[in-house]
Amino acid sequence: MKPISSNMQFMITTFLSIYVLFISLASTRGDEAEAGFNYVPGSDIGPDRWGVINENWTTCSTGREQSPIDITEERIQEQPDLGRLLQKYQPAKATLKNQHIYIEVEWNGNGNAGSMTIDGILYNVSQFHWHSPSEHTINGQRYDLEMHIVHQNIDNETARAVVAVLYDIGHPDPFIRKLEPFIRNANNVEEQPIGLVDPREAQGIDTAKYYRYMGSLTVPPCTEGVVWTVLDNIRTVSTAQVDLLKQALPEDFRNNSRPLQNINDRTIGLYQNLKIHK
């Protein structure tokens, strides 16, 4: 057999490079097509067009109580009657899923991991996921990561309550560290059982100060009526951990934060337990 010439080697290498690039682009387009939207500003399916590219997503454009928002002092009203968060959580078996728009941890079974009660309404905790950078801002400050702990009403699946946890770059987050092997493998396996996961570890124990407002889902169809609780206790996460969550996603979803929405005539409730903060 004759040895391969340098020109032939060059042609083969070039062909393989183009092929890999094609497959990569095709994969990204497939993820976009599957989701039906992306986060790229100015894109035909970017955030400013979510409400017009699908007739079922019109609320993304026409809604008056959309999320996320900037939590500003002039809109905050202290509301002591909100009280401490009424949460009854427990460890339960969970699955880590690569949803392509974000990395999600879902508990196996409705209500297995516990619940939260707001205004007498019971919401079962169902899943949590991450957005980077943060979707919500506080007085204009954007954070490096935001986790959404999603709860659903037991009688009405469209009625949701979400707890938002914000992170700044700093020391690694111990809870995310436990999930790192599974997140690292999320490029290869879309669903992985990860054993028992405790919502209390995901959220953290300091809920003595939080903001409350009525908003929406931050992804299409942008359904409104979501009760948002944004914790004021800012946690830390390492740059490597944020990068790990990003690298598991297609390129057009690695910065997966919806732009801030108009607050319109909404007010933001503030609860803080001053005794705990003394």
From TrEMBL:
Residues 35-272 form the Alpha-carbonic anhydrase domain. The keyword Zinc applies. One of its GO terms (molecular function) is zinc ion binding. It catalyses: hydrogencarbonate + H(+) = CO2 + H2O. It comes from the Eukaryota. Its cofactor is Zn(2+). CDD domains: alpha_CA_prokaryotic_like. Its EC number is 4.2.1.1. Reversible hydration of carbon dioxide. PANTHER family: CARBONIC ANHYDRASE (PTHR18952), OS08G0470200 PROTEIN (PTHR18952:SF253). This is Carbonic anhydrase. It comes from Rhynchospora breviuscula.
